């Protein structure tokens, strides 16, 4: 008994120690980035980890006021593209997952397998044909030209997650809707979607994060810096201010804040949605 308790304490100590190391690996760069925006170049080069007083607000004030860079336009473009991607993908994938999970027909299996094949298709392979298609549709340098391909690449994962969740909804609820005079569409709108808030939130968060961090598609579509999203904005800003690392760190910090705040707010939905369809009933 004593040996077993000692073994458990050692395992717990190892877990906490490993968690502490991982936390430090994440938090130290964040700390350097945040504090670097408050320093002069001399202070940043000589003392990157230390606190300096007084804290200089010039970098952050210039970025937030628009005197330096295009932070607010990049933030607006990221929000717009992400919202378009999330809205369209949830509408399309919810309908597809519902049809595959609740409407019985002999092609359910092959169609679902066809959707899941998209998980094996890397976006880099599609760059050239995707560019040609976007150009032919007249969507170059438009937000929709980024949002629609992102929706296409999110369909396999979203359909897979929603399919499992919708499949777990009891048949009794569908029978009750039928008695009330609702068909499949009514069952989807009035019963399935209200019960599926966790998985809808989960797929929405996953899609939003993927869209927010996407670099290649905006780089492929946008040729005007006023249309750049935040990842492209960071790249463009670094190219313009290569020697002013304190200013670059300030821009990177501001670009990280929306994503961090959103993840803190939405993390419980991710866990709830991923586990919601695991056990039927």
From TrEMBL:
Cell location: Cell membrane
GO aspect biological process, one term: transmembrane transport
Domain ABC transmembrane type-1: 75-266
Any one Gene Ontology cellular component term annotated for this protein: plasma membrane
Signal peptide range: none
CDD domains reported in the protein's UniProt record: TM_PBP2
Keyword Lipid metabolism: no
Primary location recorded for the protein, binned into one broad class: membrane
Gene3D superfamilies: MetI-like
Keywords associated with the record: ATP-binding, Cell membrane, Membrane, Nucleotide-binding, Transmembrane, Transmembrane helix, Transport
UniProt xrefs under Pfam families: BPD_transp_1
Keyword Nuclease: no
Regions that span the bilayer: 12-34, 70-99, 111-132, 144-166, 187-212, 245-266
Membrane topology according to the record: Multi-pass membrane protein
GO molecular function: ATP binding
Homology family: Belongs to the binding-protein-dependent transport system permease family.
Family matches, as PANTHER family: ABC TRANSPORTER PERMEASE PROTEIN MG189-RELATED (PTHR43744:SF12), ABC TRANSPORTER PERMEASE PROTEIN MG189-RELATED-RELATED (PTHR43744)
Name this protein carries in UniProt: Thiamine ABC transporter ATP-binding protein
